[in-house]
Amino acid sequence: MIRSILVILFVVLFLVLSIPLMLVEWIIGKFNPSLKDRSSLAIVNWAFRGVRLLSGVKVIALGEENIPKDTAVLYVGNHRSYFDVVLTYIRVPRPTGYIAKIEMRKVPLLNIWMKNLHCLFLDRKDIKQGLKTILAGVEKVKNGISIAIFPEGTRNKVADTFLPFHEGSFKIAEKGDVPIIPMTIVNSAAIFEDHIPFIKKATVVIEYGKPIYIKELDKETRKSLGTYVSNIISETYFKNKKEYFG
């Protein structure tokens, strides 16, 4: 319970005390948008590292050398925990926006930081608005901002399973002409979701797969990118689960 209280207090204090920083970031953005991108990334990375420290989470990161440093990418990952964003965002090498459910846009203060970080809000119940969000993601990657998405569409509540990956998610990489980076996360639900409302120490394995360039795939594979990437993540997931968790 102590960990849960400390994490909640830290997040609340960060959001409240960072209000002056939001103003500074807004001013910076008016004159130097790229500097704002870098400074916002650094500030939020610091906060997320604080959350990880207080949570007692150990992260084993594999395959980070597979992430291209000279181009934006589309990160595609499986999703079991609220901590998936916290743990993976710390590791991004360049400004990266996450695609989040539209309800997150209503969270005071947090929504401002999310916008500063180029996050996009997706309403999966509204096809027209969902398409606009995907197109906005295309523009982001064309402008050098990486995008991360969990194409299962929601947190998967069943351990060791994968919901179908929504094919529309991959249009960002296809239309933006950027590589896909499979992002496999193992054991993140052990931090919180497996024993709500308590946060407990856990080890999480994150592996970044080799970049997938859509133009290099055959026609049939392109038609079912969701299945193709899901299979890569599934294979990596069970390999790492066996190796690190028996």
Question: What layout of secondary structure does this protein have?
Answer:
Layout: H1 2-17, H2 19-31, H3 33-55, E1 57-62, E2 74-77, H4 83-89, E3 96-101, H5 110-116, E4 120-122, H6 127-142, E5 146-149, H7 171-176, E6 180-186, E7 202-208, H8 219-223, H9 225-245
Parallel strand pairs: 1-7, 2-5, 2-6, 3-4, 3-5
Antiparallel strand pairs: 6-7
Strand content: 15-25%
Which CATH class?
A: Alpha Beta
The CATH architecture can be given as 3-Layer(aba) Sandwich
Give, in order, the helices and strands.
HHHEEHEHEHEHEEHH
Largest sheet: 7 strands, mixed
End-to-end Cα distance: 28 Å
**Unreliable sequence segments:** none
- Return the domain count: 1
